[in-house]
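Hi all, a correction to my earlier message: I attached the wrong file for 5-demethoxyubiquinone hydroxylase, mitochondrial. Here's the right sequence:
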Amino acid sequence: MQRAAHTALYDWSNIVSPAMIRQCLKCRAPLLQSSRAYSVIPPPRDSGEKEMLDRILRVDHAGEYGANRIYAGQMAVLGRSRSGPLIQEMWDQEKKHLEKFKEIMAENRVRPTALLPLWNIAGFLLGASTALLGKEGAMACTVAVEESISEHYNSQIRALMEVDPERYTELLKVIKEFRDDEMEHHDTGLEHDAEQLPGYWLLKNAIQLGCKAAIYVSQRV
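and the right structure:
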């Protein structure tokens, strides 16, 4: 009997060789890597949650898209001035924000707002026209827009914290990081003479009124 057991063990070790074990582990690796079904957005539990998340992603993507177009317009006018490198630095951060939201939207099959062609033109014109007022005009525009975006991100953070902060941990991390970047841009604008522009408060209020309207419609269209 002992000999039979030894023979059976010998035969099994030949069948399940080290090479076969390594191959099985390789096959299992992709399953382990994909065990988490999402990176930022959890799977919606119902239609109400899906609608909420879709709106968040849609409007945030639209906001970052518009910000990119504004900086593009500013660079078209001031790119070769002394302010060019500073504007480019802020624009580079906005590009990263936009790419991240594109990635999240694709992962969750969320369509962008249908108004992107409008924000494409409007954003560029806003950036270019305020830059024509000089560095102070461009910085005033930056302060107004980034303050609006920061306030909007803060409202989303409060809403998600009230619903379920643990469930939306990764999304909150993204929004908080981007909110901090926007506030940094806002402060940069103030440090570079935004308030020295004649009619600063009038321009700022007008831009922020437009931002609020853009946020409202981008969530819904």
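Sorry for the mix-up. The two ends are 77 Å apart (CA to CA).
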